[in-house]
Amino acid sequence: MRLAKRVEKLPPYLFVEISRKIAEKKAKGEEVISFAIGDPDIPTPQHIVDRLCEAARDPVNHRYPESESLPELRRAVADWYKRRFDISFDPDKEVLPLIGSKEGIGHISFCFIGNGDIALVPDPGYPVYSVSTMLADGEPYYLPLKEENNWLPDLDSVPQNVLERARLLWINYPNNPTAAVADLEFFNRVVKFAKQHDLVVCHDGPYTEVAYDGYQPVSFMQAEGARDIGVEFHSLSKSYNMTGWRIGMAVGNATMINALMRLKSNLDSGIPQAIQYAAIEALSGPQDCIQEHNAIYQRRRDLIIEVLNEIGLEAEPPKASLYIWAKVPEGYNSMDLTADLLEQVGVAVTPGIGYGKQGEGYVRLSLTIPDAALVKGLSRLSGWSNTRRRVAK
Ligand SMILES: Cc1ncc(COP(=O)(O)O)c(C=O)c1O
């Protein structure tokens, strides 16, 4: 069987080796405590599930949904953005619900990237930005995110010959995997840069509601002129513990939203309507769950940070996102450390190299670990410092 080149040239899944080792341990009956996945462990709030069940019983919702989703859902998204960020969107032209934000992130490259075009992609970064660029026959140009720049890309460092072929710029704050945040001043600079070089901007912002110590992340769409050149991807996955239901949205520039809608309408048949009603309930109903969840994550964050620093994995408490980005101690690289933690104490973390070259030297730990497992995991990590061995880099 001959696979298409675009599938053949997809990069190997970097976490395969770790997943294999975890499976091996589990097969031997050993318990692995995983800090590796950013998938909320707390259930979807009851009122949202109730609305979903009620809508699932109504035969009206058993048929094909419209590609552009229910007008009530587009209105609920626009109203939520107005309340949360004080931005107004036309629900018919500037809002598009998605089958999870990953779906839209994957598809939008096909709207703006063609043969040989470049997308500017953060490194380290969520892998879908570069993979979708490649699937659309484009080339990712990696923008290094470095600690000394607070994990923001240095836009002025992009060479002229790259800018000439660049069509799209990806940004993501609060950031996965570094947990960095961006302010409006940075977003204003991004808009200026994009206008200067005729780029469209896709801001990926699924973590704007997951924040700590009273910090409130901003939306890229609040930047001056953002609507002229960009869209923001958002999601109900992390805000409302709805990863399993697959629902997100894109908002912003009407031409970009229309292009994505036209593409999608040829590929999928919309979001199951019962899930759309659940999303309306999530966005329009009581919002207390967000603060409640953030308080749980914040408590876990503080416990994890304390232990990591004790065992020599330096880490700062993040202001937002579901992640801790910890420095690998001397004598290890990110894969060595990941393998060693798994081997010695049965704890799984994610190696930074899995998010790009610049992720080397770090590992990512997720806060979505149930409390009982967290306690066990932290006690194991504390024990690890004693069994630590030096491995050549
Ligand atoms: C940065 C980032 N963007 C997008 C997504 C996709 O979220 P979803 O497809 O569940 O909306 C994730 C999920 O982990 C993510 O970390």
Question: What does this protein look like?
Answer:
The protein has 393 residues and is α/β, with parallel strands linked by helices. The protein has two domains: 5-44 and 288-384, Alpha-Beta Complex (Aspartate Aminotransferase, domain 1); 46-284, Aspartate Aminotransferase, domain 2 (3-Layer(aba) Sandwich), CATH 3.40.640. It is built from 14 helices and twelve strands. Helix 3 packs antiparallel against helix 11 and helix 4 packs parallel to helix 11 (273-284). The longest helix has 23 residues, at 288-310. It is globular and about 55 Å long. It starts with a helix and ends in a 6-residue tail after the last helix. It binds pyridoxal-5'-phosphate. Pyridoxal-5'-phosphate (PLP) binds at residues 38, 100-102, 105, 126, 172, 176, 204, 206, 235, 237, 243, 248.
